[in-house]
Input
Amino acid sequence: MLDKKIYELINDQINKELYSAYLYLDFSNYYEEAGLQGFSNWYYVQAQEERDHAMLFLKYLQNNGHKIVLKEIAKPDKELKDNFTPLKEGLKHEQYVTSLINNIYSAANEVKDFRTIQFLDWFVKEQGEEETNADNLIKKMELFGNDAKSLYMLDNELKARVYTAPSLVL
Ligand code: FEO
Output
């Protein structure tokens, strides 16, 4: 069994990851309505990845003999007023999630929970990639988003993103 605080933080993280999936579905829907199906696809895939993150946290708790307590998932509350907003909110959100992962990591370190630290290593790396991806998307949009033809091509590029199952298996 895990330390009580570690258990609670990870149980909460299930909810945070499901909220991330919900938030990115909202972004995906926004772009679908805006006629940008590539951006919509990109966030649809991202939502699937977030759901996977939630499942990994859930499985980790179960594998350690803990009961899962699912909580209410908050409604996505970001105001999506133009094609830039979801991208910027996405980066901010990933930075927030990184801080949550770091917080669990640091709590696990305090109680010398090396098993949890090893489990979290995958997420630390994943967060680095997710922040970079979110930042790259903003940069591309800043470069190409104001020209209709370039935006069309960028949107087409984003249609190519496909879902792959996480490399971490529990
Ligand atoms: Fe599960 Fe995007 O962090």
Notes: Residues 17, 20, 50, 53, 94, 97, 130 surround MU-OXO-diiron (CB under 6 Å). The two ends are 16 Å apart (CA to CA). Residues 29 and 112 are 43 Å apart (CA to CA).
